[in-house]
Amino acid sequence: MVVMDEDLNFLGLIDDDEIDLADAALTLAALDHPGIDLAPYHELLDEMSARLEAVGGRADNAVDRADALAVVLAGEFGLAGDTMTYDHPDNADLVRVLDRRRGLPVSLSIIWVTLARRLGWDAEVLDVPGHVLVLVGEEADPVIVDPFGGGVHVDGARIQALVRAFGEDRSDPAVTHIAAMPEKAVLVRLLQNQASRAEQAGRGRRALELYTRMTVMAPATVHAWWQRARLELVDGDVKAARASLGSILEVTRDPGVRQRAAETLEALPSG
User: Fold this and answer.
1) Which residues lie below 8 Å from residue 34, measured CB to CB, with a gap of 6+?
2) More confident: 232 or 165
3) Fewer beta carbons below 10 Å: N end or C end of the chain?
4) Total domains, the chain
């Protein structure tokens, strides 16, 4: 299977509940590996799924299922957080993550959640300040784990520490600061990691390419349209920036955002 731009367009047209996170992340990664055959990567995910079924197929509670994920993915297949070269772009490229068995919290969480769901288990990617975790199980009795840390269970004290590390201290961070991320938001987070690192490295056009992918795949993502417009202006493409700002007016009803976009459009030269 060779990925084309049409596959990216297709992701933008389907609903979240139709998305297999790992398949979609491989589709995005393949755009940076022209001509790559994704079949071996899908076969590897199938192999992981088969091992998970063998090890944890009989597990009937969240703790045992979370532990089976850790045994198979972290233990047998060696998936781990890249603590040595954390900011390397490979860590947000699922092709390279599967090659190296190293990744960022979000890329590893994509694999964990995808394989859990393939066994019919409830699993969600969780957005935590400065981090990404995985919830396994239903709301009544879930387990939160950290794929970047090998699947270690995360308790309330650890979550509160994460919240405090990012400048907030609330009495119930587990309720006020943790949210399950929709599938497209997870994929945007993956691309955002690449885009911010590209811009930090002085690769503005690479960042623009990534923000453009975000807007194609998740056109309701206002932040991506803002960043795309900003970088189009840096690139001197006023016409493209005007189109991106116009898209913001189409996808949001937020009055403050709409006013800002309209004022920015008004300030741009015509043409």
Assistant:
1) none
2) 232
3) C
4) 2
Which domain covers residue 125, as residue numbers? 5-180
Residues 224 and 253 placed together within one structural domain of the fold: yes
The amino acid at residue 139 is: E
The tens digit of pLDDT for each residue in 19-76 reads: 999 999 999 999 999 999 999 999 999 999 999 999 999 999 999 999 999 999 999 9
Q: Are 229 and 241 in contact (CB under 8 A)?
A: yes
Query: d(Cα 262, Cα 264) in Å, to the nearest integer?
Result: 5
Distances (CA, A) of 109 to 74, 96, 117, 250: 12, 15, 12, 32
Q: What is the DSSP code (8-state) at residue 73?
A: I
Please state, in angstroms and as integers, the Cα–Cα distance from residue 7 to each residue in 10, 173, 213, 219, following that order.
5, 38, 11, 15
Average pLDDT over residues 123-132: 90
89 and 210 housed in the same domain: no
Residues near 64 by beta carbon (within 8 Å), at least 6 away in sequence = 56
